[in-house]
């Protein structure tokens, strides 16, 4: 059992959730409540990581983070080390590939709110900010919980992009999913089995939470 | 010196055509009637600030809520308006008491619950304070909605087909409720409906809208004596 890789995966998942949840919430709410030109394109871009091969995504990310790319150059100039094959690069990639897992459940939850309930809050004297905290957030929180669970577990299990962008450096970018692959390559079936069982348990737990939470959304509006 | 009560003037050719001007005095119930798509609900939403018309002017006494010439548009939460929605639009996660108390955030927390409870008592819902909307009947939900609309001490009360989602028996009870409530209210009240019987019972004056235009205004008896208005409201062929 590679506890170092497991710890790194947990830290990566925590960073991803911490950055992506607020960002995804703003994005999801904006898409749910506004009709604007290019909405379909924006939604397609957010969903792209679901259908693109991880190697394609990883290739583009690696190109953007490379020493010759402007993002890579700017990062190196600011922090003194390259973004590619670093933990920070891994976090950036993880935020991008998890966009659909964070945005989708929250967007659906906001879209499920009846429009007249928000309007009733406004005419009751609640500012948009107060309406968010008192009406929208309590009604949409199961969607936020689903987003949290899906993003967290998907980050733990991500393989292709993490390998491309991180390069499986022990203690720096080797996550549990990469460690399982390494163990299989080294014919250590026991270690690979243990870590796989741990990931499986996490994933099933997350799906159970997400399902229970979306059931709650349905009941509240039933 | 501004006119007391509500005065409204709206003009736009699209997307929803509107060309209406009317007033409603304090204590008066003005019925906005007309066929579907006449612009009744749009006019009501414009007063509440939920819809921004292209041009016009909306004022309540000295307060100007909308003035397209001066580019003034007060958002809904800054207009003292009570709105009862067609489908009650209660907050599903809050009890009846908290639904009303949510409209009382401006007053100190300690007074909020007492005031909400007394508003619920005013619409005869004592004992149901802790129930969630899903645990109330259609008529009870609409009563909570009325109590919530009155909570802010609105300067205008807007009722958007408030009885369409309840059965006939409940509707008659709610009519009585509204008649009793209006005795104590000296604010302009607008009732949008397509039910001529209902509006004749409750409104002092009617304004008949058709395709965004005000076609006739007057007491229910006057309006119903006008063959063109009758044709619009009841489908009778004009004489």
The coarse overall form of chain B would be globular
User: Structural class, from secondary structure content of chain A?
Assistant: mainly alpha
Number of helical segments with 4 or more residues of chain B: 8
Helix proportion of residues of chain B, in percent?
25-40%
Order of strands side by side in the largest beta sheet of chain B? Answer: 7-8-9-3-10-11
CATH architecture of the largest domain in chain B: 3-Layer(aba) Sandwich
- As residue ranges, the low-confidence spans of chain A are none
Radius of gyration of chain A (Å):
20 Å
What CATH architecture of chain A do you see?
Orthogonal Bundle
Radius of gyration of chain B: 18 Å
**Structural classification of chain B:** alpha/beta
SSE run of chain A: HHHHHHHHHHH
In CATH terms, the superfamily of the largest domain in chain B is P-loop containing nucleotide triphosphate hydrolases
Shape of chain A: globular
SSE pattern of chain B: EEEHEEEEHHHEHEHEEHH
CATH-assigned fold name of the largest domain in chain B:
Rossmann fold
First-residue to last-residue Cα separation of chain A: 46 Å
- Mean pLDDT rating of chain A: 88
Q: Specify the oligomeric state.
A: heterodimer
> Mean of residue pLDDT of chain B?
88
What does this structure look like?
The complex is a heterodimer of chains A (222) and B (239). Chain A has 222 residues and is mainly α. Chain A has a single domain, classed as MetI-like fold, CATH 1.10.3720.10. Chain A is 81% helix and 0% strand. Chain A has 11 helices and no strands. In chain A, helix 1 (3-33) runs antiparallel to helix 8, helix 1 packs across helix 10 (176-185) and helix 5 (87-97) runs antiparallel to helix 9 (160-166). Chain A is globular, with a radius of gyration of 20 Å. In chain A, 43% of the residues are buried. The model of chain A has no long low-confidence stretch (mean pLDDT 88). By secondary structure, chain B is an alpha/beta fold. Chain B folds into 2 domains: 1-80 and 160-239, 3-Layer(aba) Sandwich (Rossmann fold); 90-153. In chain B, 33% of the residues lie in helices and 24% in strands. In chain B, the strands form 2 sheets. Chain B has a 6-stranded mixed beta sheet, sandwiched between helices. In chain B, strands 2-1-4-5-6 form a 5-stranded antiparallel beta sheet, with helices on one face. In chain B, helix 3 (109-122) crosses helix 4 (138-151). The model of chain B has no long low-confidence stretch (mean pLDDT 88). At the A-B interface, helix 7 and helix 8 of A face strand 7 and helix 4 of B.
């Amino acid at each position: 059992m590679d506890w170092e890789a497991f710890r790194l995966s947990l830290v990566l998942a925590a960073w991803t959730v911490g950055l992506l949840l607020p960002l995804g919430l703003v994005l999801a709410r904006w898409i749910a409540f506004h009709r604007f030109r290019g909405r379909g394109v924006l939604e397609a871009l957010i969903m792209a990581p679901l259908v693109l091969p991880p190697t394609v995504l990883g290739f583009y990310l690696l190109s953007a983070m490379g020493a010759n790319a402007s993002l890579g150059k700017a990062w190196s100039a600011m922090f003194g080390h390259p973004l590619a094959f670093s933990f920070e690069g891994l976090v950036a990639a993880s935020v991008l590939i998890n966009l659909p897992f964070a945005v989708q459940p929250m967007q659906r939850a906001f879209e499920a709110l009846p429009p007249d309930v928000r309007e009733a809050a406004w005419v009751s004297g609640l500012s948009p900010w107060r309406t968010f905290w008192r009406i929208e957030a309590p009604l949409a929180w199961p969607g936020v919980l689903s987003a949290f669970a899906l993003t967290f577990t998907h980050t733990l299990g991500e393989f292709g992009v993490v390998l491309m962008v991180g390069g499986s450096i022990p203690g720096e970018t080797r996550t549990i999913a990469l460690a399982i692959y390494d163990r299989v390559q080294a014919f250590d079936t026991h270690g690979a089995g243990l870590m796989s069982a741990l990931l499986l348990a996490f994933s099933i737990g997350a799906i159970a939470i997400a399902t229970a939470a979306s059931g709650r959304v349905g009941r509240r509006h039933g | 010196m501004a006119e007391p009560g509500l005065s409204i003037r709206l003009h736009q050719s699209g997307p929803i055509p509107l060309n209406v001007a009317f007033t409603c005095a304090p204590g008066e119930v003005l019925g906005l009637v007309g066929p579907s798509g006449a612009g009744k609900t749009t006019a009501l939403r414009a007063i509440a600030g939920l819809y921004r018309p292209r041009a016009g002017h909306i004022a309540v006494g000295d307060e100007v809520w909308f003035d397209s010439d001066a580019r003034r548009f007060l958002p809904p939460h800054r207009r003292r308006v009570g709105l009862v929605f067609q489908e009650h639009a209660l907050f599903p996660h809050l009890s009846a008491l908290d639904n009303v108390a949510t409209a009382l955030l401006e007053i100190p927390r300690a007074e909020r619950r007492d005031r909400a409870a007394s508003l619920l008592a005013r619409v005869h819902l004592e004992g149901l304070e802790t129930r969630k909307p899903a645990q109330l009947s259609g008529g009870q939900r609409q009563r909570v909605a009325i109590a919530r609309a009155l909570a802010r001490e609105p300067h205008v009360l807007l009722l958007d087909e408030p009885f369409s989602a309840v059965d006939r028996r409940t509707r008659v009870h709610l009519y009585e409720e509204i008649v009793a409530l209006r005795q104590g209210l000296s604010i302009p009240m607008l009732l949008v409906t397509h039910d001529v019987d209902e509006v004749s019972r409750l409104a002092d004056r009617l304004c008949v809208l058709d395709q965004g235009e005000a076609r006739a205004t007057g007491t229910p008896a006057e309006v119903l004596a006008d063959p063109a208005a009758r044709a619009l409201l009841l489908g009778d062929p004009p004489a």
